[in-house]
Amino acid sequence: MQSKITLTEQFIIFDEIPSILKDKLNLDRIQTNILQNYSDNKFQSDDVFNYHKDYVHVDDDQHLTWIIDYIRDHYRGEYMKTPVIKQRAALVQNKGHTINTHHHIDEFDLWNSPDISCIYTLSDNEIPSDLIFEYDKGREKHARYRIPLFHNRFVLFNSELNHYLTPNKNDEPIVNLSFQFQLL
To answer: Is the pLDDT at 138 greater than 90, yes or no?
Structure first.
């Protein structure tokens, strides 16, 4: 009898917050806070070579906590591991702006690097930007997978996956929340 051992698993999970919770969330309040922090230059880094330069600080908010709790509880229920929030931020894409390729692993501190990452789209723009994943699939190098970022959609993925956001084709900014979790 043959035995198969999976050495690594790369995944992408996408879903939406159900309307029963979404109707109670004040996403406009969260988005207003993010845009204010963006205009006040409250970025996670000033280093132009660090991907954190695109990530905007997000203030504490009960509605933000409800989003994180929903993602945590449903992931735990489905996959029997509990995501614990490690970091939260936002991405603001003005017209024509893209978010360059990066991942969320700190090569100098692997132990404290997140296990899974999440993008949650707050904006309800006519044309979504796409979240593009770059990965190797055995002999197929430089494979790509695309997920459009629609309003209220969240995407969970392995933190080591390289990813980027395509340019915003709308006149209004696209605002996304970004979460990183460690699994217990």
So the answer is: no
| Residue 69 CB contacts under 8 Å (≥ 6 apart), including other chains | none
User: What is the Cα–Cα distance from 109 to 96, expressed in whole angstroms?
Assistant: 34
For the chain, the domains span 12-183
Is CATH 2.60.120.620 the right assignment for the domain spanning 12-183? yes
Dihedral Cα 118, 34, 38, 129, nearest 10 deg: 50
Q: Show the tokens assigned to 184.
A: 């217990």
**Phi first, then psi: what are they for 48, rounded to 5°?**
-65, -15
Q: What is the pLDDT of residues 143-171, one digit of tens each?
A: 999 999 999 999 999 999 999 999 999 99
CA proximity to 10, closest of 103, 107, 111, 122? 103
* pLDDT tens for each residue of 41-63: 999 999 988 989 999 999 999 99
DSSP string of 39-102, one letter each residue: HTT-BS---TTSGGGGEEP----HHHHHHHHHHHHHHHHHHS--EEEEEEEEEEE-BT--EEEE
- Joined together, the tokens standing for residue 76 give 């735990």
What's the pLDDT tens digit per position in 119-133?
999 999 999 999 999
